[in-house]
Amino acid sequence: MSEPNAEYVPRCVNLYCKSMMVYGEAFEQDPEYQAGVTDFWCLATSQGQGPDGQPVGLQTCSCRERPCYQEF
């Protein structure tokens, strides 16, 4: 159950990490998930950089100003 005050922050549809493969949208509940430490990758490039050449991450890929951003 999600917290009532937790605000949903949209992210890019191409952002992925191992925890998302196992837990889906509840990926932060994965005991192995560590905010700020987990490796993310872009599905569009299959790398740690997006199509714009910038690094990927939960916070950076939630920025709608990125040219490659596609809301999830």
Write up what this structure looks like.
It is a single chain. It is built from one helix and two strands. By secondary structure, the chain is low in regular secondary structure. Strands 1-2 form a two-stranded antiparallel sheet. 10% of the residues are buried. The model has no long low-confidence stretch (mean pLDDT 87).
What is the element layout, followed by pairings?
Blueprint: E1 15-17, H1 18-23, E2 40-42
Antiparallel strand pairs: 1-2
H/I helix tally: 1
The arrangement of helices and strands along the chain is EHE
- Counting DSSP E segments of at least 2 residues, the number of strands comes to 2
Query: What class do helices, strands and sheet pairing give?
Result: little secondary structure
Give helix % range.
under 10%
Q: What is this structure, in a nutshell?
A:
The chain has 72 residues and is mostly loops. The protein contains one helix and two strands; from the N terminus they run E-H-E. It has a two-stranded antiparallel ribbon with strand order 1-2.
